Structures are given as structure tokens and as C-alpha cells.
Amino acid sequence: METLGIWIAALLTLAIGSLLWRQNPLYRLAEHILVGFTAGHLVVINFFNVKNFGIEPMVKGGMWINIVPIIIGLLFYFRFSRRYAWLTRIPLAYFFGLSGAIGITGALDASIRQQIIATVKPLYEPEIIWGFIPHLNINNIIILVGTITTLAYFFMTRPHKGITGGMAYVGRFFIMVTLGARFGAVVMSRLSLLIDRLYFILHDCLKIL
Amino acid sequence: MREHHIVFLVFGISVLIALFVPTGVKEASRQTVVVYDAIEELPEGSVVLLGADFDAHNRAEMVPQLEVLVEHLMRRRLRVIAVSMWDQGPMFAERVLRRVGDEHGLEYGIDYVNLGYAAGAQSMVRLLKDDIRAVYKTDFSGNETLNMPVLAGLEGAKDVDLMVDISDNPSGPTTYLEQIQSFHKGFRMVCGLTASAVPPIMPYVESGQIEGYIIGLKGASEYEGLIGVRGLGTIAMTAQSVGQVAILVLILVGNIFFLMERRRRAV
């Protein structure tokens, strides 16, 4: 059974890969199978989410309070009715409020306060004796300049002229370097996908590696 | 055959040939050593929360990392509790945990457990922080978690000794930081990341919120070298290098042709 699974996976890999040559029915077949499986998988996952976290604790554990989120969730289905579509605003408001509250309270410390603290670093350190100018911590200077000028680039309430314009201009270079680094990283990631598929065909399927 | 077919062919053949010449990485990077040390320094029996926060489309980078990190965790006899914010991660975690657990003679439910996927992301992790059993009443296989020995003495994720988050998305580690570390400064974390997830995570490493990380297949290869095993990371490293050189050469050749064409048109 496992061998059959490996061969099906290998054939689907080749079918998807055949797009590199040109559009063809094999590619479209594999694409539709993927879409179908993904949709089916999500339906099953969501079904068990509702069953395990909503229905079962209510029926078996007596947690009848669960009826409230279940009803709020069911209100989403009123989007199919023109007359009662406004009712979908209730669950939407609930989700916006809840996720906003939970997200912001956590992010305030980890992603804002701690990150601001991390940019406040010594620029002058007596023990540093190397570099263009001794005692200057070049890394910390780059972090400080990069943070301030990048923020200036996204400062949209004033025209980018004068000092603001100069800082935004420098910030643009930091953004370009970041995008270059991200592009390089994405290339590395995608290359790994190709290697994995080739290794799968050579090792698991053909057993020649 | 058109130009892009030649590019695909050159690229594919060079990577294919390189797969037959595995070399691995000679020396581990500083970040990989930090992750290794963080696990190595934990006393036997310490509790490690393992995040399998990735989907099937990134298994190429994630599974080699998962295999090598679980190997190290189980070799050190640490209690491993696997959780996931993504629905497909637990399937990979289950395979790897069971296989490596059997190899080390460890028992499921006593030495390690795969709790599986729980929906809710931020709100789920906020609840996980204080009460693991409230989020996971059963594990991935449907076993009751209430009296599971591996969870004994543990209330929430805030009580674990280390979190190892293997994630294909920067929102994986940041969610744990925002929802657990924001409220419990002693919450320690190291990560295994896809290469594309690293740049947004680097500020959190610079600030010390994340102790260290391993990057993609390269990180897996370095880690395999540190603990002395041979996995896909080691096998793939030559192919990865050859592929990257091929891309550089193709970019250079493309630009040369572009400049030649522009000069010809100008004349």
C-alpha cells in the first residue's frame, strides 16, 4: 500500500512538473486533485473543530455556554439571505473585537516595546579597537540609522522634502537591501523544494540514490 | 525548445547531478550552535514544547529540521510535547516522533506526546499558556490527556523549559512570543525556520527574545553534522550550492544578453 502511495505521489509530482514544458491535461488533472483534496481536508478539519470544541463539551460535559459561540458562528450563514445579511455583522464584530484584543495585548510587549528597547544600543564602546573608527560599534549604528530612516520612508503625512526627504531616500536603500535579502532567502527555499522532489523520485521511488 | 526550457533544463540537470555528490556543511554557523547548546544544556527529563507549525508545501525544509531536532531531543532524554497551530504539521510530527521514539526505546504518552492541531492561533496560544489540557483534551490519536504521565506537573506552556518552534511562517514564533513570552519573561525559545521566514524573525533574535534559529536545509545539514547523523540536509547541500551558483550564472548570462540586445538596438 505504501509503495502504491509513493508511486501516486511521484506521478503527481511529474504531472505538476510537466507545466515547465507547457500547459497540458496531466498538469490540470493533478491541479484539480490538489484543489479537491485541500478542500476536503479543510472540511474535515473544521467539522472536527466544531465537534470537539463546541458540541462534545456541551453534550458530554454540560458546558451549555458553548451554545453562545455556536449561535454566533451560525449567523454567518445569513449572508445567503438578502433580507437578513446584516446579521453577519454580529459575528464579524465579535471576531474583530476578540482577535484585536488578544493580538494587541500580546504584541504591545513582544513586538513593540521589546523591539524599541532592542534599537537602543551603545554606539560608543571603549573595548572596540578595530574598524574604521575605533570605539564605534558599527553594527549598532547601522541598526539605529536603518530603523530611523526606514520609519521616515513610511512617514506619509508630510511630503518627502528637506530632512524628511533625505532620510526617506536613505531609508529606501535599507528597504532595497531587505528586499534583496528576502528574495535570496525565497530562492533558497524554492530550491529546497526542487531538491526534495528530485530526492523523493530518486530515493523513495526509483531507489537509485 | 524555447529559452525558458533551456534554463529549466540546465538548472534541473545541474541540481540532479549534484544530488549524487553529498558533502554536507563543514562548519556549523553560530546560530545553529546556539540552538544545539540550548538543547544540550537542558537537564535530562526537562520539558520541551515542540511546535510543528508548517504545512506540506514546505516539508522540504521543515521535515529534515524536525527529524534532526527530535533526534537530539530524544537522545538527550527530554520530554517532548508536540503542538501545532497549522493543521498539516501534526501528521509529519506523528511520523517522526513515533519513528525516532521507537529507535530510542521511548514510550508514547510517558516520554513524548503529539497533541496535534488546535484552531484559534493567537487565542489558542493564549489559553495554551495557562492550561494545556483546556486546549487539548485529547491528543492527535484521540487519547485522553488528563492523566497522561508526560504532562504530569505541567499546567501550561508557560511552564516548559524550552520551546523549539519549527515554522514555515514568521507568524509562528511571533505568536508564541506575543502570547506567552510577553507575560512570562522566562519563556525560552529557539526556532527552525524556512529560509524565507528568517528575515522577519531576525529582529527578535537581535533583541534576545529568540535565542537562536536554524535556517532551512542548510541549518538541518549543519545540525546533522553537530549530532553526527546523515539526513536529507547533508545529502542536499551540494545540490543547494550548485543550484544557487546556477541561478547566479543564469542571472549574469541573462543580463549580458540584455545589455548586448540594448546596445544592438541603440546602433
Automatic annotation (TrEMBL), chain A:
The chain crosses the membrane at residues 6-21, 33-50, 62-80, 92-112, 132-155, 167-188. Keywords: Membrane, Transmembrane, Transmembrane helix. The keyword Transmembrane applies. It comes from the Bacteria. The keyword Transmembrane helix applies. This is Uncharacterized protein. It comes from Candidatus Coatesbacteria bacterium 4484_99. The lineage of its organism: Bacteria, Candidatus Coatesiibacteriota.
